[in-house]
């Protein structure tokens, strides 16, 4: 069996698309445009593409398991839990925020593991790179791995 790669969509004005997440329940692909400060939803079966914009760059979007229209979004210096219906041009509400509160620091990319823990990379400009994972029911448990290579495609 060979792998076939095909172009599935033209996304207008997409600058830097990354952080893809396929949601099995909705059969949609979610991803972000870091420079365009937006989160995108693409449904391959229909070809439908929608996006919502933010005030800050986002490097990941992951649906919260079992909770409709609720997403974890990584935005430069914070992680937010936000609501988006997948159609509106803006987030409807930001429920919770975890601020890393460090100067010259930026969150980069991430994924959830099978236990539901969020793992994300952090840039410390001019300093050692550390990977951080937020987990627990309230996103209040911090897991840290020091001296890792730059987090790309966790």
Q: How is this structure best described in words?
A:
0% of the residues lie in helices and 49% in strands. It is built from no helices and twelve strands. The radius of gyration is 16 Å and the shape is globular. The mean pLDDT is 79. Its cofactor is Zn(2+).
Question: Layout of SSEs?
Answer:
Layout: E1 17-23, E2 28-33, E3 38-43, E4 48-53, E5 60-63, E6 70-75, E7 78-83, E8 93-99, E9 105-112, E10 118-124, E11 130-135, E12 141-146
Antiparallel strand pairs: 1-2, 2-3, 3-4, 5-6, 6-7, 7-8, 9-10, 10-11, 11-12
User: What is the CATH architecture descriptor?
Assistant: 6 Propeller
Shape: globular
Secondary structure: number of strands: 12
Radius of gyration: 16 Å
**Major beta-sheet overview:** 4 strands, antiparallel
Provide the CATH superfamily: TolB, C-terminal domain
Tell me briefly what this model is.
The chain has 154 residues and is an all-beta fold. The protein contains no helices and twelve strands.
